[in-house]
Structure formats: structure tokens, C-alpha cells
């Protein structure tokens, strides 16, 4: 029986020059942090996870050392308790799935059900651009084979002046490319960066925006209200033809249970690196399916997090697309995936997962050594 021998957590920082100014953060980002979790068994196999910062895990290693890494449900329970008392340590779950796959010789997507070995992607932009530049970017995404694009609205005073300016960017895209690409919108109203005290939209604000988005044939409207306003989300869903999406930063699985039961969202977007890990989020995939709610994970961490969400999505086979953070040049695949030996590369809007055991992660140890903090 394989046993966990050691757990190593390292932190890394990649300088960003030029900086990345994310639509949800008016402050330009001059570095990109990544935390790497390595779980080694007594035969020297190493499972790798990444995503959140693993704050609160230190001092709990003894709860895992000596255990069989394949006892994933047991480990999930321990991590859920750590999540309650301390912090989000779900990258540990990803590392355990990776290690379990290496022990069994199977890719995680097959361990999860094996519905597919690849996922369809939507391009997830992150930068606020002038309308003409957004239209040009949409053309490039189409040329690369992406079937859908998510456009960001500004969340604070550091972005565009109002949501009407955001709508102009969408209008420019539609004028340029017509219906050759599906469009989604992230309204960025569900949460704020710590320094950002801008109030979120009211229900009436969100409804006014929804009316404009309906005219443009938008596929879903993401995070249109503050995260606690589930009743408002349900009202908005009932009042518009748009699908209402959200949940990327939801902390607890039981919150998703209530969201699904109440049909508060049409689309739920948990991220295995931020809530529940693969073990917890697979529960949500099945709950959502039974309720007729779309399941498509958020994945804006790094390539390891993208891979983990992709394996879950492929294994259970529920999502029409998976989020692919990608907005050249400010958010390139090379920047996003710097901990990895080679960045992920989509194939005409598809991510092929292959037969490598576990998650298929290969680290760039030299880069990690150079960026360690």
C-alpha cells in the first residue's frame, strides 16, 4: 500500500513587465504569484497541485503523512475542516489526485468517469480595451478556432466610465464578427479586491444591463450582482432570456447546494483550486446535472489549475466549454503557465488531455528555483 511520505509547499513570483492590468483590479499587476504543492509517497512518486496560496495548511501535515494518498474522500473531509478553521487548501486535493493517477497509471479524467479525453474551450479575456481593439481581438480568437469569448466589464473606477462604455465594446465586436463567435459577459459585480470600495450594481442596474445584452445575443451574464444576493440573481434569471452565471469565489459546497436547489443561477462556476478540490466539485457536477443547471468551472489560476478543472470537466462531461484564461500579449500562455516545463497549448479551441497518468503536469524546476520566494 502506498503511503504519503512528505508534503512540500513552495511559493513563487514571476515579475510582469509590462504589467497586467486586469479588468477586475484597477491596480496594474507587476507580478504573478504561484504556490506549488508536492506530495511524495514512499515509492518516490510525486503528486503536484497549485492554485490557491495554501494559507492555513502549515502544521497539519501530520494529518496526511502515513496515509494512503488514494483515500481521497478521507482527505477531502480533513481539508474541508481546515477550510472551515483556517484557509482554502484545495491545491492539496489536486496533488492527491495527481499522485493517485500516477499510482494507478491512469489520467484523472478517466478516474473521474472517462466521458472524454478533451474539452472545448472558451477564450477568457482579462484586459479592458478600446472597442476597436476588442473587435480585433475577437477576430484573432476566431482565427485560432475558439467558439466563444468572454468579455470583461470594468469593476471599479480604474476601468471604463460606465457599463454603457462596456456595452460599446460588445457592439464593436458584433459589428465586426457578427455571430461567428458566441459571447459571454463577466460583469465583475460579485466581489471586489480588498482596496476597492466601489458599490456593486443594484437589481435595477443589472436589469438595465441585461436588456442591452439581450439585444446583442449574449450567451450568459456572469456575476451581475453582489455574491450574497441569490434572490436578486433568481429574479434576474426570471426577468431575462440571458443565462445568469456565477460562483467562482464561493467558499463552501453547501452554498452551491443552495444555489442549485433555488435555481439562483443558470450556470455555476466553481474552481477546483479554490473550492472543494476535484473531490468536492465532482459532487456539484452531478447535482447541477440533476437540476438542469449548467456546470462550467472558473479556471483563472495557472496552467495546473486549468488542467485540474479540465480533467474534471472531461471526466464528467457536462460543460459546453471550459474557461481558458488567455489574452495576448498581457496574459499569454507563457505567463500564465510559468511553473510548467511547457505552457498549455490549445488545439483550435480544444484542450487535449491525453494518456499521461494523473494530471499530466511537468514542472519547470529551473524556473521555479529562480522565482522562489
Per CATH, the class of the largest domain reads: Alpha Beta
* Tally of alpha and pi helices: 12
CATH architecture of the largest domain: Alpha-Beta Barrel
CATH H-tier superfamily of the largest domain = Enolase-like C-terminal domain
Major beta sheet, specifics? 9 strands, mixed
What's the total count of β strands? 12
The end-to-end distance, rounded to whole angstroms, is 35 Å
Instruction: From the 3D structure, determine the CATH topology of the largest domain.
Output: TIM Barrel
Tell me the helix content.
25-40%
Rg from alpha-carbon coordinates: 20 Å
H/E series = EEEHHHEHEHEHEHEHEHEHEHEH
Number of domains: 2
How much of the sequence lies in strands comes to 15-25%
Shape: globular
- Unreliable segments of 5+ consecutive residues: none
Average pLDDT value? 96
Protein name: Isomerase
Organism: Rhizobium tubonense
Keywords: Isomerase, Magnesium, Metal-binding
GO molecular function, one term: magnesium ion binding
Structure keywords:
alpha/beta; hydro-lyase activity; 12 helices; 2 domains; 9-stranded mixed sheet; Enolase-like, domain 1; TIM Barrel; 3-stranded antiparallel sheet; 36% helix; 373 residues; 19% strand
Please give a structural write-up:
Keywords: Isomerase, Magnesium, Metal-binding. GO terms for molecular function: hydro-lyase activity; isomerase activity; magnesium ion binding. It comes from Rhizobium tubonense. One of its GO terms (biological process) is carbohydrate catabolic process. The chain is an alpha/beta fold and 373 residues long. The chain has 2 domains: 4-107 and 365-371, Enolase-like, N-terminal domain (Enolase-like, domain 1), CATH 3.30.390; 111-352, TIM Barrel (Alpha-Beta Barrel), CATH 3.20.20.120. Helix content is 36%, strand content 19%. It has helices at 72-85, 91-104, 108-111, 131-144, 163-177, 203-215, 230-239, 253-262, 277-291, 303-316, 333-336, 365-371; strands at residues 4-20, 29-41, 46-50, 118-124, 148-152, 182-186, 220-222, 243-246, 267-268, 294-295, 322-325, 350-352. Strands 4, 5, 6, 7, 8, 9, 10, 11 and 12 form a 9-stranded mixed β-sheet that branches. A 3-stranded antiparallel β-sheet has the order 1-2-3. Strand 1 and strand 2 form a beta hairpin.
